[in-house]
Structures are given as C-alpha cells and as structure tokens.
Amino acid sequence: MIAAKSSLRRCAAFFLFTLLGLLSLSKTNAQVPHAQIFGDWRIHCNSATGAPSKCQMFQNVIVKETGQPVLQMMVGYIRDVPSPVGVVTLPLGVYLPQGLTLQVDDGQTYEMAFEFCSAKGCRVRFSIDDALLSTFKDGSTAKFKSYNNMRKPVRIPVSLKGFTAAIGHLR
Question: For a Cys-Cys bond, which of 3, 99, 106, 147 suits 95, CB 3.0-4.6 Å?
Fold first, then answer.
C-alpha cells in the first residue's frame, strides 16, 4: 500500500512537472512579437536573421479552474509537402496502447498512435488531407479522446473558431 501511494505521488509529480512545462511554453509563445491571433488559434513564427520565417498555428487547452494545460494542438506545413501536418501533445501519464482518437463535431472518428513521449509530453503527428482539412474548416469542435494511466477515457475539446483564417494565413 505504501509503495502504491509513493508511486502515485511520483506519477502525480511528474504529471504536474509536464503540465508546468507546457504552461511555460504557452507563456513563451504569447510573448513573441511575431504571434497573431485568429479566433481561438494563434500563429507563431520563428525566423532567424536572414532566414525565411517558419510559422505554425496552435491552440493550448487549459483547465480553467487550475490553469493547467492538458493539450496542445499545432498545425503547420513542412517544406515540399502540400498538405498541412498536425501535432497533438498531451501531458505524460496517458495510456499509450489506446492511442488518441479525433472526431470533429459528430463526424468520422480518426484513430492515431502516439509517436513518442519526452519531458514535454506524449506526441501524436498526423497528416491533414483535403477531406480532413475541409472537416476542420467546416467544424466547430475537434474532440480528442485519450486514456489516463488508470485506463479511464479523457475527452478534450479543441475549438475550431478561427481555424480557417489561421490556416489561410500560413500559406
């Protein structure tokens, strides 16, 4: 029993550490002078002196009561790839074998596998083909579902307000 409590405390501390890392990332992005806001989406551009700017759009989902981040979704273009790529990062502590599912409004459900976990969280990367891009543009909410380490479902909504304007600004 004592070992289980100790393990649970370590897991909670690690989860909190990850969440704080995501929170500091969102504060950093908010202070960048090249950031623009489109509805619930922000665009952040990294540019070195003399180099072309590389921009991504992102949204951080934060628990209102605690201020803790629970998901970050980023969308951007990779050189020489015509369709955008999405990256979803969740805090450590997710049950990896179940993967992540995505459903826009009440439409088709997409199943995705986690790519890897690092100190910043567990990441899923996926291609956004024309059909999914159209679904995002026409939708109001992207609903993500993962499972916690107790194998209980965790549902996280992401607003699509401003998605169309933000993605249009990236190209």
Answer: 147
Q: Whole-prediction pTM value?
A: 0.77
DSSP assignment of 26-78 = HHHHHH-TT-EEETTEEEEEE--TTSPPEEEEEEEEE-TTT--EEEEEEEE--
**Which residue, chain included where needed, has tokens 């990294």?**
46
The domain containing residue 83 runs over which residues? 2-170
- Checking if the pLDDT of 145 tops 60, the result is yes
Task: Please give the angle made by the CA atoms of 23, 56 and 50, to the nearest 5 degrees.
Answer: 110
Residue 79: CB atoms within 10 Å: 6
Nearest to 120 by CA among 3, 20, 43: 20
- The CA radius of gyration of the chain, in Å to the nearest whole number, is 17
Per cent of the chain over pLDDT 90 is: 64
pLDDT tens for 44-53 read 988 655 555 6
The total of structural domains in the chain comes to 1
Contact between 138 and 130 (Cβ < 8 Å): no
pLDDT score at 25: 40
Residues with Cβ < 8 Å from 10, sequence gap 6 or more? none
